[in-house]
Design brief:
Length: 120
């Protein structure tokens, strides 16, 4: 009987230890404010977590063709930067952007399953 109780306590400890990420602060205050940089006219980039040194631009084998973007001129950042936040917990990354009701987000890095990322 004592062995069963000890085994149960070990099992319970393993379950709780595997869920340490559940104790993370997932409120807006617990999220990191993103810092953005303009990498091309109207194209903004922010990074969070461990960043892979290889990028899509590196893999493309040619520099991006920026003529069309340059013709449109400089854009302004579309959000209040202090309202863009992100958080990495375990293997998951959450990004919060202050979107309007009709706005959508397409693509967030290497997401191949679908492009429309609103509400996910």
């Amino acid at each position: 009987m004592t062995n069963k109780i000890g085994l149960f306590i070990c099992f319970l400890f393993l379950i709780l230890a595997s869920r340490v990420d559940a104790l993370e602060d997932t409120t807006l205050e617990g999220m990191e404010v993103l810092f953005w940089k303009e990498i091309a006219p109207g194209v903004w980039s922010a990074q969070i977590g461990d960043v892979d040194p290889m990028t899509f631009r590196d893999l493309a084998g040619a520099p991006p063709r920026l003529e069309g973007l340059e013709e449109m001129g400089d854009g302004t950042f579309p959000f209040a930067e202090s309202e863009t936040r992100a958080q990495v917990i375990g293997q998951r990354t959450s990004v919060r952007l202050p979107l309007g009701i009709d706005e959508q987000v397409f693509g967030l890095g290497m997401q191949f399953r679908n492009m429309n990322r609103r509400g996910q």
